[in-house]
Design a protein that fits this description.
The chain is mainly alpha-helical and 105 residues long. The chain folds into 2 domains: 51 residues; 49 residues, no CATH class. It is 59% helix and 6% strand.
Length: 105
Amino acid sequence: MTSENNIKSYAQEFKQLMRSSRLIKSRFITQSVSLKEEALEDEHLVESEGKSSLKPCLDCGKEISESASSCPSCGRPNPTIEIKQTGKLKFSRKAQKQALLVGVS
């Protein structure tokens, strides 16, 4: 009779262990799935940030950051900012007087 009781208690313990292992496994799977989803979201954010902050240099065409002060390839200052030229040059008063004395107008 004691051996039957032992067998029953072992069987109950085994069932509890199996339930707990299934529970642990299901929790582990859901956590790993959520971690994978988070990693994919982070990857997409990094890709979208990387694409939006890179622009081609106006001189050499290599892609560089918008915040770069100069192009590392060709050295152009403010390589992603297009400078509009109006066609008119502004000179200082001293330079204008010198141009008049020389005869350049």
